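Risk register update: the risk of archive-format incompatibility is retired. Evidence:
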Amino acid sequence: MTDIIDYTKSRNRKDDIKPPKVISINPNFEEYVPQWTTQDKIVPQEQKWFWFGLIPNETVTICAGSGGIGKSVVLLNIISNTTTGNEFDCCGTKVTLPKGSVILMSAEGKDSIAVTPKLIAMGADLSKVHTIICSEGVVSKKRRLLQLDTDLRIIEDKIIELSETDSPIRLMIIDPITYFTGKVKDHIQREVCDFIHELNHLAEKYSFALIFNKHRRKQSGNQTLASLADEVGGTAAWVNTPRQAIGFVKHPLDNNKFLMASIKSNVNPEENKSYCYSINPVSIIHNGISIKTIKVTWASSMEEINLGDASNKEIFAKTKSEQCDELIYTYLKENGDTSMIKIIELCDLRGVDRRLRQRVVAKMKANQEIEDAPGNLKPHIRLKKGFCE
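Archived output:
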């Protein structure tokens, strides 16, 4: 026992005593107080629209699609029409967007090459497009992109400044959003959700539309609207939290066209229709110099197809086959016996590839829709008697 007491005393010498650990308080820590209300204190409202049926106002819209299909160019077209307030024809509908200023946060490349020429080509009022180039260190002079998780006040200061002019902010576009999220982890649902809610609050407070641009992951072959939404990179909160999500895909029957539509079925009033556009080369003249760039051209009408079907390879392989079948059937019905050379020329003219044509002709023969027409030097086909009656 003595030995134990002596040992304890020896361990309690002044120079051996270690101070207790103190849990430091993080100076950046902030306590959050729940804000409760009751539903009778909430005033019912209809959805406000920036672009009716497509882009809601006072909230976040996310645009998603693979690279190389013109998402950024479409967004620049929307910017251009916002700065002028001019009516434009989009797929058979006259559209007028709220006229005002736009804040553009872009990291798609050098603005003088990737942004400004396109805006000029599409008739934008450049004085109303406000772009923050970067943040610069006061001492180090190092430059970095703005980070919205910590620098949001800088954006709000600009919005307040514009609100005191005759051209307040009507639209803000962040392209791509993942370059400006700071330390927000793209795959953590809670962090993304909180991040979007904070920007939602800003858009509602100052009454403007806010659009994010984001890439999709690698696509699967057979898709639905739900699977299109699932393929937006990062957590599902990128699609679930915003009021609207707009998808972009290639046109399944025309490689020079693209489709755009809502991928949230509770928002899209035209669930089985899509906006159609093409990206066309143009030249602008600036300070006497010709500069090549591109612009959006909207189709004359909507496409009767939703994006899920448009992305489904099996559906459109079948559709192309059916179209080829109808093409051959109609021609034979109108012209009778026809040489295979003429059928080949007809299919080539309509963009039907050789293998598909051969499969369709073989299938039509097997189904006894058509038959070889005898008495000709070169192969001819005709509709089988009784089939077209």
